[in-house]
Amino acid sequence: MAEIKFTTSLEHNIQVLKNIFKNDNTFITRIAKNKNGLICAICFFDGMVNNLAINQSIIRPIVSCYESKVTAETLAETIIQINDSVVQPDLNKMLSAMMYGDTVILTEGEDKPVVVNTKGFSVRSSSEPDNERVLRGPREGFTEAFMTNLSMIRRRLNDTRLKFSFSRMATHSQTAVCLCYLEGVTDEKLVKEIKKRLDKIDLDGILDANYIAECIRDEQNSPFPTLGTTERPDVVVAKLLEGRIAIITDGSPVVLTAPCILQECIQANDDYYLPVMQASLARIIRSFGIMLSIIIPALYIAILYYHAELLPTRMLLALAAAQKGVPLPPLWEIFTLLIVFEILKEAGTRTPGVIGSTMSIVGGLVLGQSAVSARLISAPAVIIVAIAAVTGLAAPKLQNAALYLRFILLVCSALFGLYGLVLGLSSVLLHLCALHSCSIPYLLNLLPRVNAHTEDRTIRISWRKMKNKRFIAERGKK
């Protein structure tokens, strides 16, 4: 931030600001005078402020007052009619506030500016996040407005122990970041650890929460998410009550939560808004679906290459007949189809509107059917890849991990058959056992020896039977 120095000369102070923001046509300076000779300069950025608030709560009181000379304190406490009006002697903080939508008032004879909250830039209205829709429950989602996101959390968690710790990060963007936690519930060691990681961030600009996530997450090279992400305020509040920490970034609707364990990745946002039996069954289906998505291509290759005797005779003959005339071996069929599917998914994601989803569906059907008809790909390979792709959607948070593991296990199976598949799965399990998120075991609640004194695990437990809900907090205090 620029180093500036104000004096008691209003003309000098105005010229200092004009020199800082030269060639910036959005910088506005408005001179306001009253009949007794009081002169004030109102400085702001066009498009960032509420013009009605400036006209009615700043300019009108200054013009109407009867004083000929006032101090900055009197101006802020007596004349200005806005609830957030303070004298700001730190000129760097003054510049930062003004660039974020506040108005600065300079007075003749005073070297201290007054900063008034007049933020009025347009923001997107709150709506349900497209990638976190629920069958039941709230339909509200975070937006890019920083204070609005904080108010959504405060409205749902009416507790004096709820703490918001602010800081500004990045050299040029000076992005506001808020560390949110529930004092007395969240482990103090966890709060200190997150603050320590945030203090080490050294970036020129932070435009999204992912900038922070890449810098503070555990195990940077692991495909499994060690930081939670959500755009729903009800999910953030639920995690705060469990003893977690939320990191809110200005300009991003995505909120980071820590710690993040594997159990969260197979849960849905509306698990606690649905009946117990329905939510429990859905969790089991998701767990089975993600395992099937990872294993089935590798299992198909392992059996076909090394363990064909395990298949019934009729099925083996059907697979041999389908493979007849196809130029590619089964391994390269699966590889090719998996890569084509990922290309179609990426193209559908980047194509705007309804055209993207239509292109993915039509492209997959047309290409798959045409390839089978032309005898370039066998029908069983298309079915295997389709099953892997569809079942992978059961746990969206693990799609990235499933993509990597699918190819790794495929190579292991092609080299060593079922032994390679078991070896690959064992390596994944060892990696998960060694994985931590903010010193919390990643397999918390899933292994018998790693428990957290909570009844809510893979099966959804009703609220009446759940006596301890703060499992992260309890784990941190052990």
Structural write-up:
By secondary structure, this protein is α+β, with helices and mostly antiparallel strands. The protein has 3 domains: 10-116, no CATH class; 130-260, no CATH class; 286-434, no CATH class. The chain has helices at 10-20, 51-64, 72-79, 91-99, 146-156, 188-199, 209-216, 233-241, 262-265, 276-306, 313-323, 330-350, 354-373, 379-392, 399-416, 418-434, 471-477, and strands at 27-33, 39-45, 85-87, 103-107, 114-116, 162-169, 175-182, 228-230, 245-249, 255-258, 436-437, 440-441. A 5-stranded antiparallel sheet has the order 1-2-4-5-3, sandwiched between helices. A hairpin with a 2-residue loop joins strand 11 (436-437) and strand 12 (440-441). Helix 5 packs across helix 8 (233-241), helix 10 runs parallel beside helix 15 (399-416) and helix 12 (330-350) crosses helix 14 (379-392). The two termini are 44 Å apart. The model is unreliable at 449-453 and 471-478 (pLDDT under 50).
Topology:
Layout: H1 10-20, E1 27-33, E2 39-45, H2 51-64, H3 72-79, E3 85-87, H4 91-99, E4 103-107, E5 114-116, H5 146-156, E6 162-169, E7 175-182, H6 188-199, H7 209-216, E8 228-230, H8 233-241, E9 245-249, E10 255-258, H9 262-265, H10 276-306, H11 313-323, H12 330-350, H13 354-373, H14 379-392, H15 399-416, H16 418-434, E11 436-437, E12 440-441, H17 471-477
Antiparallel strand pairs: 1-2, 2-4, 3-5, 4-5, 6-7, 7-9, 8-10, 9-10, 11-12
Helix pairs in contact: 5-8, 10-14, 10-15, 12-13, 12-14, 15-16
